[in-house]
Amino acid sequence: MYPCEQYLAAAKDLVSRYPQLKDKSRTHCASWHASIKNRARKAEAKAHRERRAALPCNQQCRPKNAVRIVFPAASCGTGEDEASVQVRVDFMKKEMEKAVWAQKKVQDAMNRTYKARRAWLNTENLTVAVVTDRYPALAWAQEIQQEFRRQTGRDAQEGLTAFLERSTKALYKLFCMKSSIKTK
Question: Which domain holds residue 23?
């Protein structure tokens, strides 16, 4: 879905075909790589908005029998009052807008704002768009796994692998029950 390596290959091909488009970077195509990547990201976001708008759904779509697990809200921790949390959130937003962002700095800010973030998530009914708008790092799979680790103390990938090993046969039986998979 996101062919990151192909963006660089396309930028290199563009510069090799048209040498006058070289820039001053080490690869001679860094600006073109970023431009192609941003254009693809914006096109994907536009397509996503159009797909969401086409869905027949009102504002109150919720799954039946939804269960909300609320963890106890803790205070902001030592040295992390509301002002410092807001400064770290603003830093994360600014850092995530960059083409190449400092992952360690963002992860540190996410660790320091964890308690305030959990309290905010537990007190309000929020959409994914609102959460990723305030904490854009949560749009990345690595940071979602880190958030899972912060909250549960376990690795999500290991848990999923163990679950699949335990229940592969049961899942296979469920998949065979679907009418589209049945053999005649």
Answer: 4-50
